[in-house]
Amino acid sequence: MAERDRLLHRLDEGLAALGLDLPDSVRGRLIDYVELLARWNSAYNLTAVRDPGEMVARHLLDSLAIAAHVSGASLADLGTGAGLPGIPLALLQPERQFTLVDSNGKKARFLREAVRSLKLANVRVFEGRVQDVPGQFDCITARAFATLADMLNWAGGLLADGGSWLAMKGKLQDEEIAALPAGFRIEQTLALAVPRTVGERHLIVIRKA
To answer: How many domains does the chain have?
Structure first.
């Protein structure tokens, strides 16, 4: 089996487990993204995950596992790194506008190349600190970026009224949840079942109080 076919097969298995039915065009672009990331990763060390097959599970499927919880017309992905979960979600949801935020120059260069080569007209890249991002967003995502308190203290003002903050975490820490800043409340905490991944994965949905 050719490498690209192997990656598509692994993606399809995961999508079936997540209950997602995607058109061939989106499936192909998701694999294009993994292949681009794998090429850049060898030179720029963008992610600790080296194997493209592992990237499908630990990056693509992990990102797509929260797709049903994204809402609104605009989304900011804070500390996006190599574009996670922002790029997989943007490929899945072209009707939304995505802003990918990262202060690391080499990661921002990769993001701009990914936007160009994947023809992501609904994505822009902001290279800088989350504290400096202009505007407000209907939805904010952050994947293992910082503690809940730090994220909300730095960037809570980016969340529009009525919007939702989707914090992707591994193992839940009671003390972290207890330290939620004033003005915010946890709407729900969900355990995520991500195919072919080891360890706990959780989604914490936060709204303004």
So the answer is: 1
Tokens representing 130 are: 């989350």
Give the pTM.
Answer: 0.96
Residue 92 pLDDT class (50, 70, 90 cuts): very high
CATH of the domain at 15: 3.40.50.150
Scanning the structure block, which residue is given the tokens 């960037």? 155
Flag whether 130 is marked binding: yes
E strand or H helix that includes residue 112: helix 105-117
Q: What is the DSSP secondary structure assignment for residue 59, as one 8-state letter?
A: I
Is 131 within any annotated ligand binding site?
yes
34 is in an annotated binding site: no
- Quick: pLDDT tens for 31-64: 999 999 999 999 998 999 999 999 999 999 999 9
Distance CA 139, CA 137 (A): 5
Q: Where on the phi/psi map is residue 42: left (φ > 0), alpha (ψ -120 to 50), or beta?
A: alpha
Range of the domain at 161: 3-208
User: What's the half-sphere exposure (Cβ side, CA atoms, 13 Å) at 81?
Assistant: 19
What is the spatial distance between Cα 78 and Cα 84, in angstroms, rounded to a whole number? 9
Local confidence band at 184 (pLDDT 50, 70, 90 cut-offs): very high
